[in-house]
Amino acid sequence: MSNPIFTSTFYRRDLGEASRFEEELANTIDDPAVARRVAQQAGLVPAVIDTSGPPSTFWSRILDKASQAGLLEKLVKRIEEKWGDNNQIATAIANLRNATVSGSLQVTKLLLEGDRPFLGRKGLREALPKVENWQSSVSILVVRGAPDTGRTHTQELIADRNGKDVRVLLNENLQLVSTMKRIWSVAGATGPVPAVIAGEPLSTESAVLADFWTDVFAVLDERDRRMWVLFDDLDKGPGRVEVRALAEVLAIQLVDVSFQRRLRLVLLGYPEAQLAAKNVPAAFVVDDVTEDLGTTEIKAFIDYCLRRAGRKAFDDPTLTSNSEKLCADARALVTPTLSFAEALNHVVRGWYVSTIKGAP
């Protein structure tokens, strides 16, 4: 069986073994000159090696470039030769290789940090690695689907897998000015938010919106930050046409490679069949559609938790009966203000805490 980390053309930091290896590199090898030398010894040409910024940033770039060039396994071997006596590095490298030997990789992570269930979303899990590659032009994620089907929960998986990046979630109650203030603050900007003239019609042609994103980019670049901007429920709430224009202007700006290195755009509940912003190549966008959750996803969650805890798996009848009960319990909790997706997360988390985490 081929190793999904070594054979990928982008660095698979969506997989736990890959993300932990990256963290150990940043913690252990913090000298940019040393990192550059090792990368060159692995075969990367000097022109593509950028060691500016903190260790987490330059190692992220080196791993991305090594994966693109098919040199990741060679890079790992060079690192092992020099730092193999470091227990953390040695363990991280062994985990990378064990992805092939023992099948230890759990590609579908159904329980996030903080014991938060995250069920289903196969399409999202397949799409995210493309957007998470900061050396790629793929920089826009569009999530569609009916309201209350878990679109907002997308942010939880993004947060779990991209903890080092800055994130801002903009809900449907924020109108344009409040949205801009929130982005401005989370980016780390100081001073007043660039003003929008009252009554001025806004569209993807509006210079004031383009200037706003240019200023946000400048702040992120100066502070060596990367930011995910998540516009939630774009199909509901007041003043969404102007907020959509703000999001679409960022989509246009993301045609610029420099913007792609600092920003990611996530459109949740985007109402148009195609991204309305002009001049945004389809290759820069990945799409996802939320799906209905049910007993199939609950079965997968129960089985995942049991195996993760080293417990004996349920036989199929027991697995089915437990899944059906949890599904029924969740449906009984649904109210006009509590969706089935939210109720299901609450119920299965309760099952995990009582049956797995709290069990002797």
Instruction: State the low-pLDDT regions, or none.
Output: 100-107
CATH architecture of the largest domain: 3-Layer(aba) Sandwich
Number of domains: 3
Q: Main β-sheet: number of strands, strand sense, barrel status?
A: 5 strands, parallel
Order of helices and strands: HHHHHEEHEHEHHEHHEEHHH
Top-tier CATH class of the largest domain: Alpha Beta
**CATH homologous superfamily identity of the largest domain:** P-loop containing nucleotide triphosphate hydrolases
In total, the number of strands is 7
Defining traits:
14 helices, Rossmann fold, 360 residues, 3 domains
Compact summary:
The protein has 360 residues and is an alpha/beta fold. It is built from 14 helices and seven strands.
Can you walk me through this structure?
This protein has three domains: 16-101; 121-289, Rossmann fold (3-Layer(aba) Sandwich), CATH 3.40.50; 295-357, no CATH class. Residues 100-107 have low confidence and may be disordered. It has helices spanning 16-28, 32-41, 55-68, 72-83, 87-101, 122-132, 154-161, 176-187, 207-222, 240-253, 257-260, 295-308, 316-333, 340-357, and strands at residues 111-112, 116-117, 140-144, 166-170, 227-231, 263-268, 285-289. It is flat and about 60 Å long. Helix content is 50%, strand content 8%. The protein has 14 helices and seven strands. The chain is α/β, with parallel strands linked by helices and 360 residues long. The longest helix has 18 residues, at 316-333. The strands form two sheets. It has a five-stranded parallel β-sheet, sandwiched between helices. Strands 1-2 form a two-stranded antiparallel ribbon.
